[in-house]
Amino acid sequence: DSPEIKEEVLRKDDRFLALLKDVYVESRDPAVRVKDGGGEHLPSKQEEKRLTKLGHLEGLDVEKVPKGKISLVEALTLLNNHKLQPQIWTAEKIAAEYSLELKEVNSLLEFFIPFAVQEFRKETRKAITSHEPKKLT
């Protein structure tokens, strides 16, 4: 806020200006070294995507997923297909159908098993008898 400081800041010093004109800067980028990622894949700006294979369930999930990945509904669908028809829906066929790695599909089929829903017939159900609540004395 001081006028003396403002004047000092705005004042041009001819001696410094002459020295600045003599300065020449040359800059070079360092040599680019490529690191071995050990098989890691760097994410690209445009990942390759595929359309999902949901059939009548397409309204429940995303429309496109990156190759090498599956959506949640697709995972449940392929697990159920494998459970119902393991001779048709083999790990190799699932890997080819959904663009997945075979070892990942084998792990998926080994560690994730869909629930089995069982419905009991009415004749075998036992009725729950209601008990009268105990009276507090």
Structure description:
This protein has a domain at 68-114. The chain contains five helices and two strands. It has helices at 3-10, 14-22, 72-84, 91-98, 102-111; strands at residues 49-51, 64-66. Strands 1-2 form a two-stranded antiparallel ribbon. The N and C termini lie far apart (85 Å). InterPro entries: NDUFAF4 (IPR009622). It comes from Prunella fulvescens. One of its GO terms (cellular component) is mitochondrion. Pfam families: UPF0240.
Short characterization:
This protein has 137 residues and is mainly α. It is 35% helix and 4% strand. It has a two-stranded antiparallel sheet.
- Note the beta-strand portion: under 5%
User: pLDDT below 50 for ≥5 consecutive residues: which ranges?
Assistant: none
What shape does the CA trace take? elongated
- What is the averaged pLDDT score? 76
Number of helices: 5
Helix content: 25-40%
| Cα-based radius of gyration, to the nearest Å | 35 Å
Based on secondary structure, the structural category is mainly alpha
CA(first)-CA(last) distance: 85 Å
The succession of helices and strands, N to C, reads: HHEEHHH
Number of strands: 2
Largest sheet: 2 strands, antiparallel
Order the strands across the largest sheet as they lie in space. Answer: 1-2
